[in-house]
Design brief:
Blueprint lengths: L2 E7 L18 H19 L4 E4 L11 H14 L3 E3 L20 E3 L5 E7 L2 E7 L22 E7 L1 E2 L10 E2 L11 E5 L5 E5 L2 E4 L15 E8 L2 E9 L4 E8 L5 H9 L6 E8 L3 H8 L1 H12 L2 E8 L4 H13 L1 H10 L9 H4 L3 H22 L1
Helix pairs in contact: 1-2, 3-5, 4-5, 6-7, 6-9
The chain binds manganese (II) ion.
């Protein structure tokens, strides 16, 4: 059997910062995308990959520095295999680019389609690609590419496949533009969520290599593509993220704190950062609401994960709020002052309530009840 392997990654966004706050080490934000790319290079070397394709957004437009480009150059050189790059919307030229050249094994596609013929393990392979000409690409780049029917062809392009229904429209194409083009593997970039849109031919978004917040949660990394007898025989996702963002949601009615700790500990790593949502009623919901900091600390210790935030969502029935409001109003000033004093955040400002007239106080409680009802309607 004649075969080879290659690595497909995209949206490295090297230098990018986190969009959500990391509890204890903000410094990780700057390093994480670099560490993930180093892990991809390690994987390519360990798996004996013959080449790598990078489908755009190598650098993060806002945050990449000359040192970021130097880092990429050195890691690309360490990889030692041919690396093909198609530029994306984040890759416009920087003043320092010409002072920090890429090593000779890196081939960056130009703004017009090009095909590079290579030979791996005695097999002819075509790698075809095209780059963004500027930050906003109005052309349908993918439609400009095609393969050779007799040769295994990889097409590398940063584009927005309409059917994926995500990302900012840039270099838009439709899935049908990619069919019947004699391309065996469409190596795409731009959409940060990993997805295989077709297997005939392969149309693959590997997603970005490092999540920057809870909107980019879950494992992130690259695809290792195995080819035998001129066909893709296996597609393996390899997670390489340095920090993994995780969203966990539990029902307070069905788990207690210890069970939750077990759920969190299950295939967790110390580099995970968790956003926890506690729904329903019960002891867990009570601690999530009244003692979020304490719960965060205890769960973090028991499950060896970092918890960035805890949200509690207790669905109180509407009439419940109204009757709570009514009993507050019936209780008069004493009841309102007692409620304010019992609240740990606002009790220091209880004297402000004392200076309100009875009418003002009633109106404030009524507004609060209505506001709460409206807010709940939005959530339910
Ligand atoms: Mn991107």
């Amino acid at each position: 059997m004649r075969g080879f392997r290659f690595v497909h990654c995209a949206d490295l966004h090297l230098g990018s910062r986190f969009k959500d706050f990391l509890p204890d080490d903000p410094g990780e934000a700057g390093r994480s995308s670099l560490e993930s790319f180093s892990a991809i290079v390690d994987m390519a070397l360990a798996e004996g990959a013959s080449f790598m394709v990078i489908s755009g957004d190598v650098f993060d437009r806002r945050n990449a520095l000359p040192s970021t480009r130097l880092f990429f150059s050195k890691e690309a050189e360490r990889a030692g295999i041919p690396i093909f790059v198609s530029k994306g919307n984040h890759d416009s030229e920087r003043p320092w680019d010409r002072y920090i050249p890429f090593p000779r094994n890196v081939r960056v596609f130009g703004a017009e389609p090009e095909t590079v013929k290579i030979r791996v393990n005695g097999i002819d392979v075509d790698v075809t690609g095209v780059s963004f000409a500027s930050r906003y690409e109005g052309r349908n780049l993918a439609a400009m590419l095609r393969g050779d029917p007799g040769t295994f062809t990889v097409a590398c392009v940063h584009c927005d496949v309409e059917e994926a229904d995500e990302g900012h429209p840039n270099a838009v194409c439709s899935l049908s533009d990619l069919m019947d083009k004699d391309v065996d593997y469409w190596a795409l970039g731009h959409i940060h969520r990993r997805r295989v849109m077709s297997e005939r031919p392969y149309v693959v978004y590997p997603g970005n290599i490092q999540g920057r917040g809870f909107k980019e949660s879950g494992p992130k990394g690259a695809y290792l593509v195995s080819v035998s007898d001129d066909r893709v025989s296996r597609l393996t996702f390899v997670p390489t993220q340095s920090v993994q963002w995780k969203e966990v949601s539990v029902d307070s009615g069905s788990v207690d704190e210890n069970e939750l700790a077990e759920i969190l500990a299950e295939d967790s790593s110390p580099t995970d950062v968790v956003s926890l949502t506690v729904k329903g009623k019960g002891a867990l919901a009570d601690s999530a609401f009244h003692d979020a900091e304490g719960l965060k600390e205890r769960l973090g210790r028991k499950a060896h994960v970092r918890i960035a935030r805890i949200e509690s969502r207790t669905d109180v029935p509407e009439d419940g709020i109204r009757s709570a409001g009514e009993s507050l109003m019936e209780g008069g000033r004493d009841a309102v002052e007692a409620a304010v004093l019992s609240h740990r955040v606002i009790r220091d400002h209880a004297h402000a309530v004392g200076s309100m007239t009875g009418k003002e106080l009633k109106a404030a409680v009524r507004d609060a009840v209505e506001g709460l009802e409206r807010a709940m309607e939005d959530r339910l």
